[in-house]
Design goal:
Rossmann fold; 24 helices; 23 strands; 6-stranded parallel sheet; globular; alpha/beta; about 35% helix; about 600 residues
Length: about 600
């Protein structure tokens, strides 16, 4: 088939299918986000237009926002579908870098197709071309190498024959999933080639379930059988394997208390007898208490980042760590006993080795007992008398009024700790907290993508005023496209959580809250978030108290569904009221600050490398 490079690429995208956990076949690439410029409009843009009824193309307003929306889409579909993003060369391509970092850190697949400069170099330097003095082959797109799981530059049409299988491999492999960048020089996009028809035959990508090595399973089972206080930690890999119910059954059958990481949050029903709560700094005191006493930790589908491990102080120095993970890269960290394989397959095989082994019921009972104490604490925060709502109370309102099939999101700042630690879920996978890269702005762009993908429930995203100002154009993107969600904007006059870190360690208030920022005005202007969101095409509700917040959020839920556009709730929140999980986080504290004493006291308890 004689096609341009761009036409061949689009036809290949259309031929790729994916299988969901319930056996349905869906497009692997369900949507494209595009801002067209001189690097992609005639080549890829023309090819996409030819298939506009088969492959939806959505107009974005920042390249970063489009790629964040695609990332949110991948998370909401449990990595079973992949968004595609195309940009022009230069600033359009560089705007993708931050979003690629989000997808990379969170192990989420997204396909980036930035335009690139001319391979023939005849018109160089072209508009928007970056010219590195030391390397004639480098372009702005090379900045994406560090945040791509796979990077390629297509300099001849026939290179697609070798590149596209690798693209599909990375995007659908549980161990390698992440952003893929195909840089597309604008002259090559328009070049033709006789492509074999076989390239465009339909292919269905099914989740590979790699089974662990028998010797590793035997050693892991021996370690668990010898334990008296084992703990199960469930991460995002359990979610992407579709193994949530299986993990819970494994825990219940053997009596092992269960905790969750940020990416694994809402896998377990909140009231389950083996559930101890979320783990770590942004988690719960209940889970952290059990972690400190555990002698064996079975970590499934998690890379155990510092917020989960409290900078590696949440576990006892004598703990033995077993890491069941699809990626060997993550499984071998920190001296863990590596069990490399799919979460569902690995738990099945490990359970067979354990047979009827069961933990002492007194240890199992600690999960419910400790969680009850944490629940009482969260309840007291939610019911506290306050003229201005706290973050914990905002989360409580959203939690109370949400339905089981709803989807709640946040990213960066103080809200992740409030949502992770305070949410009481029904056991359906219903939460996306972007705290792998902690990207301000993901709350709105990612919500746009999630609203496109999430079936059967309403998406609600919670964000602070700082994140709103960072990346709000996708409110209009979603309103224009007709993808409704609810955004709860908590206005606390600045970057409150960093102000908390700054002052909590003994630093002076500086450039985080607005009163501590340099300005030439005696009375600086304030943002009217309600009017701004309304101007972006949203339905808006304001709240000035807890009772007003409840009414406003209820109305926003209804409005989002009836208007087919985002509904925004704006509420003033307390700037210095936080949910504390009682864990330490390592940050660089200068010796002259008051927080250095706590640093010096906690640092010796940090586990650097666990014994096998």
């Amino acid at each position: 088939m004689k096609l341009t490079t761009a036409q061949a690429l689009v036809r290949w995208l259309l031929a790729q299918r994916s299988e969901t956990f319930d056996g349905r076949e869906v497009p692997l690439f369900p949507a494209v986000w595009a801002i067209f410029g001189h690097g992609n409009v005639l080549g890829l843009g023309t090819a996409l237009e030819e298939h506009r009824d088969e492959l939806p193309v959505w107009r974005g307003h920042t390249e970063q926002g489009m790629a964040l929306a695609a990332t949110g889409y991948a998370k909401a579909t449990h990595r079973r579908q992949v968004g595609v993003v195309t940009s022009s060369i230069g600033p359009g391509a560089l705007n993708l870098v931050t979003a690629a970092g989000v997808a990379h850190a969170n192990r989420l697949p997204v396909l980036l197709l930035p335009g690139d400069t001319f391979v023939n170099r005849a018109p160089d330097p072209v508009l928007q071309q970056v010219e590195p003095f030391h390397d004639g082959t480098a372009t702005a797109n090379d900045a994406l190498r560090a945040v791509s799981r796979y990077f390629d530059r297509i300099t001849r049409p026939e290179q697609l024959l070798a590149a596209l299988p690798q693209v599909a491999r990375v995007l659908t492999d549980p161990a390698d999933a992440g952003p893929v960048t195909l840089a597309l020089p604008q002259d090559v996009q328009a070049e033709s080639y006789d492509f074999p028809e076989a390239l465009f035959e339909p292919v269905t990508h099914r989740l590979p379930r790699t089974r662990p090595d028998l010797r590793a399973l035997t050693e892991a089972a021996t370690a668990l059988r010898s334990s008296r206080r084992p703990l199960l930690v469930l991460g995002g890999g359990v979610r992407y394997s579709g193994a949530g119910a299986q993990a819970l059954d494994f825990a219940q059958r053997h009596g092992i208390p269960v905790t969750e990481t940020t990416a694994g949050r809402t896998l377990v029903p909140h009231g389950h007898e083996v559930y101890a709560g979320p783990l770590g700094i942004t988690g719960s005191a209940s889970a952290n208490v059990l972690a400190a006493s555990a002698d064996v930790v079975l970590a499934v589908g998690t890379r155990l980042q510092d917020f989960t491990t409290a900078s590696w102080t949440v576990f006892s120095p004598d703990v033995r760590l077993i890491a069941l993970n699809a990626a060997r890269f993550d499984a071998v960290k920190h001296g863990a006993l590596a069990v490399v394989g799919d979460a569902a397959a690995g738990l099945t095989d490990l359970g067979a080795h354990l047979e009827d082994w069961h933990v002492d019921p007194q240890w199992t009972a600690q999960a419910a007992a400790q969680r009850a104490r944490w629940d009482a604490h969260i309840g007291s925060l939610r019911s506290a008398a306050s003229e201005i709502p706290s973050y914990a109370q905002v989360v409580g309102v959203v939690n109370d009024l949400s339905e089981p099939r709803d989807y709640v999101m946040t990213a960066s700042g103080g809200l992740p700790g409030e949502l992770i630690g305070g949410w009481r879920g029904s056991g359906e996978v219903s939460m996306d907290v972007e705290y792998g890269f902690s990207c301000m702005g993901y709350e709105l762009s990612g919500a746009w993508g999630a609203a496109m993908a999430h079936e059967g429930g309403l998406v609600t995203t919670l964000l602070g005023d700082g994140s709103y100002l960072m990346l709000n154009s996708d409110l209009f993107s979603a309103a224009f496209a007709g993808h409704p969600f609810v955004a709860v904007v908590c206005d606390n006059d600045g970057y409150a959580v960093i102000g908390r870190l700054q002052q909590g360690q003994g630093g002076k208030p500086f450039t985080n809250f607005y009163p501590d920022c340099r300005t030439s005005h005696d009375e600086p202007p304030r943002v009217d978030f309600a009017r701004h969101a309304e101007a972006m095409g949203c339905t808006v509700f304001e709240a000035h108290s807890l009772s007003e917040l409840r009414d406003a959020y209820a109305q926003a839920r209804t409005a989002a569904g009836t208007t087919r556009r985002p509904a925004v709730v704006v509420v003033r929140t307390l700037p210095a009221a936080w949910t504390e999980a009682g864990a330490w986080w390592e940050v660089g504290v200068p010796e002259h600050l008051a927080g250095r004493a706590e640093f010096d006291a906690a640092k010796p308890g940090q586990v650097r490398y666990l014994h096998r």
